[in-house]
Amino acid sequence: MLLDVKNLRIAFRRDGRDITPVRNVNFSVPEHGRVALVGESGCGKSLTALSLAGLSPTDRATVSGSISFSGRIAYVFQNPAESLNPVMRIRDQIRESLPQDMLRRERDARIVELLARTGLPDPERAARAYPCELSGGQQQRCMIAMALAASPDLLVADEPTTALDVTTQKQVLELIDSLAAETGMAVLLITHNLGLVAGRMDLVNVMYAGQIVESGPVVEVLSAPRHPYTKGLLAAVPALDAPRDAPLADIPGTVPPPDRWPPGCAFAPRCRLAQDECRNAQPPVSLAGGRRWACFATAS
Fold it and tell me: Which residue has better confidence, 236 or 228?
């Protein structure tokens, strides 16, 4: 297994309150695998991804559990405009990820090669450019080139299409797919949209309120979701064949802040199937056919 996360817990204090935004998270990524971590904003997905590289939300955070990883990891973050240094040219930023023993001319040639690999039409111009001189899609391609510079075994793509138009979103995702197939690197995709993982990922982990509530092969989870939260996320994906005036489905309420996780099942306040035991006790993790889910209402 390339990456194995067991009982990951991230906790810290804020304004005198104990906050645990990530609670007992377990998942793995096989070599050359394609795995998704899905959930609404505020569910702890990005914190989980950052913890893989030892990055915590504050110096006073307590991180426990275990993360076993063999190889190199690289990140593509959700907002390239904020991730790229605005006062450095693209080539200088990518150069930092290349082996320092390379000659300068070799590094410059490698930078142009990496940018060309991402499909930029004029990689030499992009290398000389500052981030503000590029579009959002071009900036994200530069971020992907920077990630590839380290020859990673695992690429963590954290909401890589945020703030991009639909056409550019498709291009960026297809680029990641093609590069993964070409290089053999594994991919951990962080997203709030279950529709993006269909036909793209092998395994999916659905996260809510800092916990994995359902996981399994993508085909099985999407065709027969067991947890009400997973069903709600799927229902919220607009259908292409739906009538134009059809109302959009949604999940009532919002994800509670991490200092106010409710007792029992955290999804119970928003769940139409919630029972008294859901609100009073933590649901057991059920296993069937390799599928995991945690829900009183559907575990029987």
Answer: 228
